[in-house]
Amino acid sequence: MKRKMSIGLVCLILLSFCPTAPAQDKPKTEEQMRVFTPVKIQVVLTEYDGEKKAAVLPYSFLMYSEKGHNVNYESFLRLGVRVPVPGLEKDGTAQYIDIGSNIDCGVTTDEDGRFSVRLRIERSLLYAPNKDGRDSFVATSATPQPLVPTFRTQSLIVLKDGQTTEIISAADPLNGHVVHITVTLNVQK
Hints:
Layout: H1 2-17, E1 36-49, E2 52-67, E3 75-85, E4 95-109, E5 115-124, E6 128-129, E7 135-136, E8 150-159, E9 164-171, E10 178-187
Parallel strand pairs: 2-4
Antiparallel strand pairs: 1-2, 1-10, 3-4, 4-5, 5-8, 6-7, 9-10
């Protein structure tokens, strides 16, 4: 019995020094086979004063769409200026506020080849009446505390390659200007 145990122990020790055969490759799981598609998202904010275009603000994102995952915000843009507004602090000093455009964007590839696009858009600007009573989007010394109109929207839209759609059309209550937001998605080759 001792002899059998000794032989078994020697065999076990010898086997531990032998190179092992490579294991068979396991099939890749869906998590390991992540597919990324490069896409360009273009967001255009167009502002109309009646029939006349008052502003056209285009923004583009080159990003990667992932198949079958939640749509998170993967890209963002912060474009604007920090403006001093006098007297907002307790001691009467100026406080700086951000004025401009903020856009967060995320995209996911759906099963049918379409894309789910999540957008969060915020735009703000300065607004103060001029001395002559007309409205202006520039702060003047006549009005030390300008108004800061802000436009915010959040959308989840589904687009095909090359498709453009208008996601928002809204009127500014201060001046009656109408803002249209269009989104275009193009797959990059």
